Amino acid sequence: MIKNEKIKAAEVHVTGINGEDLGIMSTREALALAKQYKVDLVCTSLMTSPPPCKLIGAGAAKAEAQQDKKKSGKLPDKRKVKEIRLTLQMEDHDRDTKQAQAERILKKGDSVKLVIQVHGSKEGAAGKEWAEQLCQALAEFGTKTTGVQVSGKQVVVQLDPKI
Protein backbone atom coordinates (compact mmCIF):
# COMPACT_ATOMS: atom_id res chain seq x y z
CA MET A 1 0.00 0.00 0.00
CA ILE A 2 1.54 3.26 -1.16
CA LYS A 3 0.78 6.39 0.85
CA ASN A 4 1.07 10.16 0.48
CA GLU A 5 4.32 11.48 -1.07
CA LYS A 6 5.38 7.98 -2.19
CA ILE A 7 2.67 8.05 -4.90
CA LYS A 8 4.61 8.82 -8.10
CA ALA A 9 1.70 9.15 -10.58
CA ALA A 10 1.02 12.61 -12.03
CA GLU A 11 -2.77 12.17 -11.73
CA VAL A 12 -4.91 10.05 -9.40
CA HIS A 13 -8.59 9.13 -9.19
CA VAL A 14 -9.61 10.16 -5.67
CA THR A 15 -12.33 8.70 -3.45
CA GLY A 16 -13.34 10.76 -0.41
CA ILE A 17 -13.40 9.82 3.27
CA ASN A 18 -17.05 8.69 3.10
CA GLY A 19 -16.62 6.85 -0.22
CA GLU A 20 -17.76 9.71 -2.46
CA ASP A 21 -16.09 10.03 -5.86
CA LEU A 22 -14.00 13.21 -6.02
CA GLY A 23 -12.82 12.56 -9.58
CA ILE A 24 -9.42 12.71 -11.28
CA MET A 25 -6.99 15.35 -10.03
CA SER A 26 -3.27 15.94 -9.88
CA THR A 27 -1.39 14.15 -7.13
CA ARG A 28 -0.40 17.54 -5.62
CA GLU A 29 -4.05 18.58 -5.33
CA ALA A 30 -4.98 15.22 -3.80
CA LEU A 31 -2.14 15.52 -1.23
CA ALA A 32 -3.24 19.08 -0.40
CA LEU A 33 -6.80 17.79 0.13
CA ALA A 34 -5.48 14.99 2.36
CA LYS A 35 -3.51 17.51 4.47
CA GLN A 36 -6.57 19.76 4.69
CA TYR A 37 -8.66 16.90 6.14
CA LYS A 38 -5.68 15.61 8.18
CA VAL A 39 -5.86 12.16 6.57
CA ASP A 40 -3.66 9.99 4.36
CA LEU A 41 -3.88 9.60 0.60
CA VAL A 42 -3.59 5.85 -0.05
CA CYS A 43 -3.14 4.28 -3.49
CA THR A 44 -5.28 1.12 -3.72
CA SER A 45 -3.99 -0.25 -7.04
CA LEU A 46 -1.19 0.51 -9.46
CA MET A 47 -2.75 -1.57 -12.24
CA THR A 48 -4.86 1.22 -13.73
CA SER A 49 -4.12 4.68 -15.02
CA PRO A 50 -4.78 7.00 -13.27
CA PRO A 51 -4.35 4.91 -10.10
CA PRO A 52 -7.34 4.89 -7.70
CA CYS A 53 -6.60 6.53 -4.34
CA LYS A 54 -8.59 6.94 -1.14
CA LEU A 55 -8.59 9.53 1.58
CA ILE A 56 -8.28 7.47 4.77
CA GLY A 57 -7.71 8.49 8.39
CA ALA A 58 -4.19 7.65 9.61
CA GLY A 59 -5.32 4.94 12.02
CA ALA A 60 -7.83 3.55 9.52
CA ALA A 61 -5.14 3.06 6.87
CA LYS A 62 -3.11 0.92 9.24
CA ALA A 63 -6.18 -1.05 10.31
CA GLU A 64 -7.18 -1.62 6.68
CA ALA A 65 -3.68 -2.85 5.83
CA GLN A 66 -3.82 -5.29 8.75
CA GLN A 67 -7.26 -6.54 7.65
CA ASP A 68 -5.97 -7.09 4.10
CA LYS A 69 -3.02 -9.00 5.51
CA LYS A 70 -5.33 -11.18 7.62
CA LYS A 71 -7.62 -11.86 4.67
CA SER A 72 -4.71 -12.90 2.47
CA GLY A 73 -3.59 -15.27 5.25
CA LYS A 74 -7.01 -16.94 5.23
CA LEU A 75 -6.61 -18.51 1.82
CA PRO A 76 -7.94 -22.05 1.55
CA ASP A 77 -5.76 -24.40 3.52
CA LYS A 78 -3.26 -26.16 1.38
CA ARG A 79 -3.53 -29.89 1.59
CA LYS A 80 -0.71 -31.78 3.14
CA VAL A 81 0.73 -34.61 1.11
CA LYS A 82 1.31 -37.64 3.29
CA GLU A 83 3.66 -40.25 1.92
CA ILE A 84 3.06 -43.96 2.51
CA ARG A 85 5.95 -46.26 1.67
CA LEU A 86 5.30 -49.83 0.59
CA THR A 87 7.29 -52.78 -0.73
CA LEU A 88 6.22 -55.69 -2.89
CA GLN A 89 7.49 -58.11 -0.25
CA MET A 90 4.91 -56.93 2.33
CA GLU A 91 2.51 -59.43 3.89
CA ASP A 92 -1.19 -59.11 3.01
CA HIS A 93 -2.07 -57.89 6.50
CA ASP A 94 0.52 -55.10 6.25
CA ARG A 95 -0.84 -54.12 2.84
CA ASP A 96 -4.37 -53.91 4.31
CA THR A 97 -3.06 -51.76 7.15
CA LYS A 98 -1.38 -49.35 4.73
CA GLN A 99 -4.55 -49.18 2.63
CA ALA A 100 -6.61 -48.37 5.74
CA GLN A 101 -4.06 -45.70 6.67
CA ALA A 102 -4.42 -44.15 3.20
CA GLU A 103 -8.24 -44.20 3.59
CA ARG A 104 -7.97 -42.37 6.93
CA ILE A 105 -5.69 -39.70 5.46
CA LEU A 106 -7.99 -39.14 2.45
CA LYS A 107 -11.07 -38.93 4.70
CA LYS A 108 -9.27 -36.33 6.80
CA GLY A 109 -8.80 -34.19 3.65
CA ASP A 110 -5.08 -34.63 2.99
CA SER A 111 -3.48 -36.05 -0.14
CA VAL A 112 -1.69 -39.40 -0.16
CA LYS A 113 1.44 -40.23 -2.11
CA LEU A 114 1.90 -43.99 -2.41
CA VAL A 115 5.54 -44.98 -2.96
CA ILE A 116 6.19 -48.66 -3.74
CA GLN A 117 9.84 -49.70 -3.58
CA VAL A 118 10.83 -52.04 -6.44
CA HIS A 119 14.00 -53.70 -7.71
CA GLY A 120 14.38 -54.17 -11.46
CA SER A 121 11.98 -53.95 -14.38
CA LYS A 122 10.06 -57.13 -13.54
CA GLU A 123 9.13 -55.80 -10.13
CA GLY A 124 8.36 -52.42 -11.72
CA ALA A 125 5.51 -53.95 -13.72
CA ALA A 126 4.19 -55.75 -10.63
CA GLY A 127 4.49 -52.54 -8.59
CA LYS A 128 2.56 -50.59 -11.23
CA GLU A 129 -0.18 -53.23 -11.24
CA TRP A 130 -0.43 -53.12 -7.43
CA ALA A 131 -0.54 -49.31 -7.45
CA GLU A 132 -3.46 -49.46 -9.92
CA GLN A 133 -5.25 -51.94 -7.63
CA LEU A 134 -4.71 -49.64 -4.65
CA CYS A 135 -6.08 -46.68 -6.63
CA GLN A 136 -9.19 -48.67 -7.52
CA ALA A 137 -9.64 -49.74 -3.89
CA LEU A 138 -9.30 -46.12 -2.71
CA ALA A 139 -11.41 -44.66 -5.58
CA GLU A 140 -14.37 -43.97 -3.27
CA PHE A 141 -12.16 -41.75 -1.05
CA GLY A 142 -9.82 -40.09 -3.55
CA THR A 143 -8.88 -39.55 -7.16
CA LYS A 144 -5.53 -39.88 -8.91
CA THR A 145 -3.86 -36.55 -9.60
CA THR A 146 -0.89 -38.11 -11.31
CA GLY A 147 -0.68 -41.26 -13.33
CA VAL A 148 1.22 -44.23 -11.93
CA GLN A 149 4.86 -43.30 -12.46
CA VAL A 150 7.54 -45.99 -12.62
CA SER A 151 10.98 -44.50 -12.17
CA GLY A 152 14.04 -46.51 -11.33
CA LYS A 153 13.55 -48.11 -7.94
CA GLN A 154 10.06 -46.88 -7.12
CA VAL A 155 6.49 -46.67 -8.35
CA VAL A 156 4.69 -43.46 -7.32
CA VAL A 157 1.07 -42.32 -7.49
CA GLN A 158 -0.66 -39.42 -5.73
CA LEU A 159 -4.30 -39.38 -4.66
CA ASP A 160 -6.26 -36.27 -3.68
CA PRO A 161 -9.35 -36.54 -1.49
CA LYS A 162 -12.79 -36.31 -3.04
CA ILE A 163 -14.56 -33.18 -1.86
Structure write-up:
- The chain is an alpha+beta fold.
- It contains four helices and ten strands.
- The protein has helices spanning 27-37, 58-73, 92-108, 120-137; strands spanning 2-3, 11-15, 21-26, 40-43, 52-56, 81-87, 111-117, 142-144, 149-151, 154-161.
- It has a five-stranded mixed sheet. Strands 6, 7, 8, 9 and 10 form a five-stranded mixed sheet that branches.
- A hairpin with a 5-residue loop joins strand 2 and strand 3.
- The longest helix is centred in the last third of the chain and has 18 residues, at 120-137.
- The relative contact order is 0.12.
Write the layout of secondary structure elements.
Elements: E1 2-3, E2 11-15, E3 21-26, H1 27-37, E4 40-43, E5 52-56, H2 58-73, E6 81-87, H3 92-108, E7 111-117, H4 120-137, E8 142-144, E9 149-151, E10 154-161
Parallel strand pairs: 2-5, 6-7
Antiparallel strand pairs: 1-4, 2-3, 4-5, 7-10, 8-10, 9-10
Give a summary of the structure in a few sentences:
It contains four helices and ten strands. It has helices at 27-37, 58-73, 92-108, 120-137; strands at 2-3, 11-15, 21-26, 40-43, 52-56, 81-87, 111-117, 142-144, 149-151, 154-161.
Q: Determine the fraction of residues in helical runs and give it as a percent range.
A: 25-40%
Global structural class: alpha+beta
Number of helices: 4
Number of strands: 10
Strands of the largest sheet, in order across it? 1-4-5-2-3
